[in-house]
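Hi V.,

Quick status before I head out on leave. The structure for the redesign project is tokenized and pasted below; the design run finished overnight.
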């Protein structure tokens, strides 16, 4: 089960009323942000719209990529990840080295500690995303596409990450950690040397995935209907390589706009903590919300840049799904409901412990030359392997070697 319902038979007619509605909501939100917030907020909304649009059109997944790799050895999507990461590091290196930004923000990548918190969190997240039906980005763009059960995943994702925020000081202060490690600044490589090493790593991983795929004679990814020529921008699927490059460029633009890369789950912690505070919890006393973080807790969610990116992703995916005639609410079963509850809780809790999700830790971390991003990916794949045995318990499918496509 991918994050978004797929119909491989033919292109559907555009849902023009929904497209108009999505554009109207986006425009109203853009104007509101332009009037009430600093200039970067409406800019980030546009970037978020493009991120969501890209994710949906290519069905660019992280959950399905790891699942296909571990179940049948298909590495097509993983190689798209390597292209995305390669393009992102090429763009991030000069931005981080020179401190380039559009609005004078101090630029910093996502470099986080390597320790027990990271390993436990990434493993839990790896299991959770396979049960919840999508990762952090997958949850958002699946909601934009109308997959009903993902609303359940999101609710419990928010609950899980809020609990994780409350528990985080224990994991970061009481559990062993070797601290932060950057290939660029913790070594003598610098950003230039770290870039070369990173590109070599991506190339080796891509090559190994190709060898494994040939050896296992893996089924290919199922094709999706698509228009031809320039119409493909608006109708049908995009090739994974195009989306990989687009996501890398958009992440670099995010870095230069707000001073840090694309992230998702910190906004979930904010939303959940505000809700917990509203019903009486003393959230302000949590270690997670001390220092500069307290400002976000006491401000409007529309002042939070990650929140605006998330809204943009949902709206962008909604417009993309309507353009393809694919927006459709789907059926919730007892099995996928329970899997979404458990998966959402695990992803939320794991994301806080691991200093991010597939976007903030894996994509943003690796693009920022942080060792924790690589470890996150390896450990999350381990969680995925275990989850392959858990998914059938909830009626969720797992690709098989004798499938014609996966």
């Amino acid at each position: 089960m991918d994050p978004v319902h797929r119909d491989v038979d033919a292109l559907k007619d555009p849902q023009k009323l929904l497209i108009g509605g999505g554009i109207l909501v986006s425009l109203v939100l853009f104007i509101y942000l332009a009037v009430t917030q600093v200039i970067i907020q409406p800019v980030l909304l546009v970037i978020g719209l493009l991120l969501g649009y890209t994710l949906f059109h290519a069905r660019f997944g992280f959950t399905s990529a790891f699942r296909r790799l571990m179940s049948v050895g298909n590495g097509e999507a993983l190689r798209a990840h390597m292209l995305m990461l390669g393009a992102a590091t090429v763009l991030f290196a000069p931005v981080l080295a020179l401190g380039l930004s559009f609005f004078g923000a101090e630029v910093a990548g996502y470099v986080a500690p390597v320790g027990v918190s990271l390993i436990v969190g990434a493993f839990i997240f790896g299991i959770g995303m396979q049960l919840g039906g999508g990762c952090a980005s997958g949850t958002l763009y699946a909601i934009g596409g109308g997959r009903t059960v993902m609303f359940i995943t999101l609710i419990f994702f928010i609950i899980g990450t809020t609990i994780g925020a409350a528990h985080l000081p224990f994991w970061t202060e009481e559990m062993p950690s070797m601290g932060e490690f950057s290939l660029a600044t913790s070594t003598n490589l610098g950003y230039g040397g770290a870039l070369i090493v990173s590109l070599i790593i991506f190339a080796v991983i891509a090559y190994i995935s190709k060898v494994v795929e040939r050896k296992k004679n893996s089924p290919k990814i199922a094709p999706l209907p698509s228009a031809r020529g320039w119409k493909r921008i608006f109708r049908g699927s995009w090739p994974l390589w195009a989306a990989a490059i687009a996501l890398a460029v958009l992440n670099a633009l995010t870095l230069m706009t707000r001073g840090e890369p694309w992230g998702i789950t910190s906004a979930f912690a904010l939303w959940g903590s505000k809700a917990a505070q509203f019903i009486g919890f003393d959230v302000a006393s949590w270690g997670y919300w001390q220092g500069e973080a307290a400002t976000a807790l006491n401000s409007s969610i529309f002042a939070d840049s990650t929140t605006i990116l998330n809204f943009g992703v949902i709206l962008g995916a909604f417009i993309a799904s309507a353009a393809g005639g694919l927006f459709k609410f789907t059926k919730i079963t007892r099995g996928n409901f329970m899997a979404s509850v458990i998966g959402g809780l695990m992803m939320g809790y794991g994301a806080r412990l691991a200093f991010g999700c597939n976007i903030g830790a894996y994509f943003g971390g690796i693009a920022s030359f942080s060792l924790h991003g690589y470890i996150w990916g390896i450990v999350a794949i381990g969680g995925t392997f275990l989850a392959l045995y858990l998914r059938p318990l909830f009626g969720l499918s797992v690709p098989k070697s004798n499938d014609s496509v996966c």
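Above is the designed sequence. The chain has 15 helices and two strands.

G. will cover questions while I'm gone.

Best,
W.
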